[in-house]
Amino acid sequence: SSVPSGSRSSKTFKPKKNIPEGSHQYELLKHAEATLGSGNLRQAVMLPEGEDLNEWIAVNTVDFFNQINMLYGTITEFCTESSCSVMSAGPRYEYHWADGTNIKKPIKCSAPKYIDYLMTWVQDQLDDETLFPSKIGVPFPKNFMSVAKTILKRLFRVYAHIYHQHFDSVIRLQEEAHLNTSFKHFIFFVQEFNLIDRRELAPLQELIEKLGSKDR
């Protein structure tokens, strides 16, 4: 049967507009990539000397969004309305969607629908110049940190869903090293700046402890 256009399988997420070359944020991203290459993730997430914390968090948030976008993109064909009729991370954790503006009361929806809502919402935040200014000298808003925390908390849920519901597909695709490195980088980053409440991390607590113990 032919797939109707506009269905999930024909739609992939568009990555966030690239950080403009020559900008300070681009330099920060290059710094992040260089330190990541050293293999020491704990060091790679630390705020570079003399840098603005908001800017460092902004650059990394965009980067994590792009990474998760790509990782989820590799398994979308396995994450369907029928296979994942609820957005869950194992049997004990289920997520309902609300963005506070269009959908005020949390709704129960399938994982692909939830992740579609989530990624579209994050992209809208990242594209909002008043929240994520890309121009030098434009100050970050006072509520920037709480916005960034909400984005990262929600992006974590995509990792949690992939690990709990699709890890066998990840292994078949030989993507597990890529997924583990990305998630470890993400976790070290949110731990370094205390960006996600411990309770929110509960669905992957064992994995987080395992990743952390290898690095002590």
Automatic annotation (TrEMBL):
<dbReference type="GO" id="GO:0016301">
    <property type="term" value="F:kinase activity"/>
</dbReference>
<protein>
    <submittedName>
        <fullName>MOB1A kinase</fullName>
    </submittedName>
</protein>
<feature type="binding site">
    <location>
        <position position="79"/>
    </location>
    <ligand>
        <name>Zn(2+)</name>
    </ligand>
</feature>
<feature type="binding site">
    <location>
        <position position="161"/>
    </location>
    <ligand>
        <name>Zn(2+)</name>
    </ligand>
</feature>
<feature type="region of interest" description="Disordered">
    <location>
        <begin position="1"/>
        <end position="20"/>
    </location>
</feature>
<keyword id="KW-0862">Zinc</keyword>
<feature type="binding site">
    <location>
        <position position="84"/>
    </location>
    <ligand>
        <name>Zn(2+)</name>
    </ligand>
</feature>
<dbReference type="InterPro" id="IPR036703">
    <property type="entry name" value="MOB_kinase_act_sf"/>
</dbReference>
<feature type="compositionally biased region" description="Polar residues">
    <location>
        <begin position="1"/>
        <end position="10"/>
    </location>
</feature>
<feature type="binding site">
    <location>
        <position position="166"/>
    </location>
    <ligand>
        <name>Zn(2+)</name>
    </ligand>
</feature>
<keyword id="KW-0418">Kinase</keyword>
<dbReference type="Pfam" id="PF03637">
    <property type="entry name" value="Mob1_phocein"/>
</dbReference>
<keyword id="KW-0479">Metal-binding</keyword>
<keyword id="KW-0808">Transferase</keyword>
<dbReference type="InterPro" id="IPR005301">
    <property type="entry name" value="MOB_kinase_act_fam"/>
</dbReference>
